[in-house]
Amino acid sequence: MIKIRWIVVLVLVSNILFGQKSDAIVPFNKKLNTFYNVRDFCISNSGNEAFFTIQSPDAQISQIAVVKKEKKEWLEPELLSFNDSFMYLEPFLSPNGNRLFFVSDRPLDNISSEKKDFDIWYVDRNNSNDAWSTPKNIGKPINSSFNEFYPSVSRNNNLYFTMEAPNGLGKDDIYFSKWNAGTYETPVLLNENINSSGYEFNAFISREEKFIVYTKYNEDGGQGSGDLYISIKDENGKWEKAKNLGVPINTKYMEYCPFYDAENEILYFTSKRRNLEPRKFKDILDFKSYVQENPNGLSRIYSTAIKIE
């Protein structure tokens, strides 16, 4: 029954995607269009907090920001207090909303000024009105001497993440670590239905671990550059062969950093899509508005309504 249900869901997803128009893909928030590069999005269960990464044009400066909603209106974005001169990116809010995972090259102590490789870190709070704690390194066996990226956590605290590892199938692979009795077990490389000899990264795990959405880079049969794929678990708990989410979600440009809001059935993702065309402009404000408000090749966060069960 489980397998049949998931086949139906995949058919439904395919029908939704093929029936969508490109205008069904919309920016999350136009206030973010003033930033050069915006990526790595997650939103709280209440829908009143969204966390994301903002970066300089060359991506050498990277900070985590939050935007909050009051009276159904999004306020101005703010930097999180723990940002400093090191790189901070890829926030992921725990299901209970009180732990924020992220990635940073900050040193393990508060004394050193030398950055290290990228590790997974987290901060805690008591509630949404409380301040975040100081950053804590998640430690071994998750972090290693290699780079770890893009944490995503299921309802039972199992952790999925990307790692640059010499013993993987490719340069970037997706790993899984089980939460057991208050600690994480040794990470396990996901099978060849997920990973390959190429690049797999930015995996979002559903709350019940029934599906995973992630990016494959330059995969045969894809739209080009990075595409979003989905894989589901069969009745034996094994990952099925991943399927391309298709157009209009995927384009010939880069799509990455997915996040699925199951409560509202919205898929958020980052894209470098572009649809600007040369034209005559009335004035400089008309030019600025056209370039800023339309997909222009810069990294931005988009959303689309889609039902994935």
For this entry, give a set of tags.
309 residues, 2 helices, 4-stranded antiparallel beta sheet, globular, mainly beta, single chain, disordered N terminus
How is this structure best described in words?
- Helix content is 9%, strand content 37%.
- It has helices spanning 2-19, 284-293; strands at residues 26-27, 37-43, 49-55, 62-70, 73-74, 78-79, 88-93, 99-104, 119-124, 136-137, 148-153, 159-164, 172-177, 179-180, 183-184, 188-189, 199-205, 211-217, 226-232, 243-244, 255-261, 266-271, 300-305.
- The longest helix has 18 residues, at 2-19.
- The chain is built from two helices and 23 strands.
- The chain starts with a helix and ends with a strand.
- The protein is mostly beta strands and 309 residues long.
- The strands form six sheets. Strands 2, 3, 4, 5 and 6 form a five-stranded antiparallel beta sheet that branches. A four-stranded antiparallel beta sheet has the order 1-23-22-21, with no helix packed on it. A four-stranded antiparallel beta sheet has the order 7-8-9-10, with no helix packed on it.
Summarize the structure.
With 309 residues, this protein is mostly beta strands.
